[in-house]
Amino acid sequence: MSAEEVTQLVLRERQSRDRGWYEEMAACFADDCVVVMSWYTGSGAGFVRHTQQATAQRGDLAVHHLGPPAVRVHGDRALAELPLVIERRVDVDGVEADIASSCRSQYRAQRGADGVWRIVRITSVYEKDTITPALPNTRLNIDPQELAAYRPSYRCLAWDLNRRGFPVGDDHLGDDRPEAVQAQYREEMTWLRQARIPSA
């Protein structure tokens, strides 16, 4: 039952974000939650607030296409890894384009004293991304050297957000830096093993 509760928790957080249900999204996070993504690092409450503000400023709401999460539960803690593709319709100098960013989100969830599971951390691991014209027979005029300046695991995402005034750093987790990703997995499993196990 706990694995199903955690599965529904992470799916509800993503659905609420995509649909703009910000109160329901906020209810998914613990008070001390930390979120680490390409464009935002901070508290869960701040993530909800900045998501709402960024959506209003950019005028484009990202859509997340989700794969089945893998969930591990140990006592009052759980880890869920959710594969997803982030899709956004953008404007590139008057030409409509689609950015598709493949990544996986790692969720830490913890069951509170009230028996409710809440998210205590989200960490994104980026895999690859693409940018393509939205309409046939149109062409994107993008200098390849501009894109080459960014890391391959999230270059199109970073290029677009940076040019819009949403700075994206060069130090995020990505499959082009496998040692850092493996260290992240070890850290997650260590956290899970430190769970409180209720006495019989």
Topology:
Blueprint: H1 2-19, H2 22-26, E1 29-36, E2 41-43, H3 44-58, E3 63-66, E4 70-74, E5 77-92, E6 95-111, E7 117-133, H4 144-148, H5 155-163, H6 178-193
Parallel strand pairs: 1-7
Antiparallel strand pairs: 1-2, 3-5, 4-5, 5-6, 6-7
Question: Keywords for this structure?
Answer:
single chain; Nuclear Transport Factor 2, Chain: A; 7 strands; NTF2-like_dom_sf
Characterize the structure shown.
With 200 residues, the chain is of the alpha+beta class. It is built from six helices and seven strands; from the N terminus they run ααββαβββββααα. Strands 1, 2, 3, 4, 5, 6 and 7 form a seven-stranded mixed beta sheet that branches. The longest helix has 18 residues, at 2-19.
Summarize it.
This protein has helices spanning 2-19, 22-26, 44-58, 144-148, 155-163, 178-193; strands spanning 29-36, 41-43, 63-66, 70-74, 77-92, 95-111, 117-133. With 200 residues, it is of the alpha+beta class. The protein has a single domain, classed as Roll (Nuclear Transport Factor 2, Chain: A), CATH 3.10.450.
